[in-house]
Design brief:
CATH topology of one domain: FAD/NAD(P)-binding domain
Cofactor: FAD
Mean pLDDT: 94
Keywords: FAD, Flavoprotein, NADP, Oxidoreductase
Family: Belongs to the FAD-binding monooxygenase family.
Strand content: 15-25%
Protein name: L-ornithine N(5)-oxygenase
Shape: globular
Low-confidence stretches: 1-8
InterPro entries: FAD-binding_Monooxygenases (IPR050775), FAD/NAD-bd_sf (IPR036188)
Length: 635
Amino acid sequence: MAVPNTANNGVDALVAEKRYGEERAKRLRDDGEEQFVVIANSDKFRHFQEDPNEDTAAVKDVRTMFPDNQCQVLVLGAGFGGLLYAVRMIEAGIQPQDIRILDSAGDFGGTWYWNQYPGIMCDIESYSYLPLLEETGYIPKHRYASGEEIRNYAKLVAERYGLTNSAVFRTKAQKLIWDEVSKSWDIELVQQRKEEPPQTLKIRSQFVAAVNGVLSFPKLPKFPGVLEYPGPMFHTSRWNYAVTGGSQAEPSLTKLQDKRVAIIGTGATAIQAIPHLARWSKHLYVVQRTPAAVDHRDQRETDPEWYRKEVATSAGWQRERSRNFHQQFTTEDRPKINLVDDQWTHATAMVSICGNPNGPKSMDELPAYREKLLAIDLPRQNRIRARVMQVVEDPNVAEKLQAWYPSWCKRPCFHDEYLSAFNRDNVTLVDTGGKGLDRINGDSIVVGDKSYPVDIIIFATGFRSPVVGTPAEKANITIIGRNGVSISEEWQCSGPTTLHGVLDHNFPNLFLCGPSQASVGPSYLFTMDQLAKHAAYILGQAKRRVAEKPFAVTPTAVAAENWAQQLMVRALSMANISGCTPSYLNVEGALDRMPPEAQLTMARSGTWGHGIEDFMEHVEAWRAEGSMQGIEIRT
């Protein structure tokens, strides 16, 4: 399909492609991910990771949680992913008291615990995003749930399934070592409570679920002068209401009324926080490298009567609503009825990162496929750029807020108040032309030859890329499997050897949560739940087949290799991420510069290129067949 010469509401395809290339060129840097420092990996910057919400008195001592230094199932992560793995294992026959859930946070919620900045809400509709709605009977308060509601719902789920007393907070696993004799994991734990010395403990667990999430480690840009700045600074994932005033429940940032504030970044987090900062700051400087493509959200309260009649209509409604949502992300055979019908579901070109069963089958088909998606995407991006010009009063500012990249190159953003914030006299857009801040000089941020004195600096600079790294790196731990094999070395050298992304051949009884060799969709919690169900099924079946004997469960080497080959055959559907404006999705442009052998390993480590529903068809058919084909159980 050829790209049409013109598109409604804006520039034609050739002009757009040229601008896309120019925007990408502004952001390309030789240092890639090295332009950032991951807070957790740096002693100098680790104070940025301190938790302003810590309630030490509410955190149980790690030793009392492991009275005999062991458990049956250890879940790494107390976000929704960890909760879902625990819930599905309970449904498979594991008792809640035999499960321990570990997290360095002070409560349940994962990313929704850490990110408590003003204005935070989910950009996926809550009726699809929040898991277990059918099981709990909970009715979300809004079409898009606030961060506070989501965090409280996580605690409700824990209570409902008897997991509240299974949580071990302010605690992380340092090292996991497989013991072939006992068929279990030896684990080193460390608990760090505020203003207390760390406590270490060695335990043993027969099974481990590594569910650490994908946006777990905040990062800061490496520009000079950060550590010399005299005023308050914090990352949005550690929002300090003691500095700004207010709270997540009542974001009246009254302490900013006489303050000049700079927020660094204009991604998905910043667009939610900026309207609140603009409302309360004496002056707000918004430092931008690349503008976000911000569509409208159309937030509204949930009418319970409408919800019961139109949403929660019958048994299995949430699964069918999710299926309908996912089916909007295909270039062919979209459902006639769009149950969600928000701006996500009209971003069809997102198949480039969600996967597409109708994608290219060979390299020869790839250029035409890219042209087809650009043609589909151009009217949407033109409309979003036109919206900027309609909302923002200053044409010079509006032009700088227009996003020039295809929809799939960055996570789409949705907000009804972000753009209008730039109409306020107390808000200044500091556009850096893709380069970012140059330095901090004394009490001023510096861009080029201009200095801006500020009293507070807030970093909305995101997290370590979830695209690269093994389960060990994603949890900042060491994992040693069979025959002394390190998962970090094994995966970096030759890629994963999993079946369905949940079990690796070299690491028995270690349940994984993707996205490597699994699938992704706009709503990552749906994927996590499906993988949790799959892991629980494998564990439950294995336990039934060996009675009470200790055992090790892994995929066979042949099954793992066959799965990797199936992934690689489908990888071309995801190839459009190459050539994108640098972001965490393409490791700041590093994917394009990888040598062929590294690209091959990345393809092997990637996600199912035909989309989440096609992935689920394969996984569910495997379960329905019933023989646990490709799974090896050793006693």
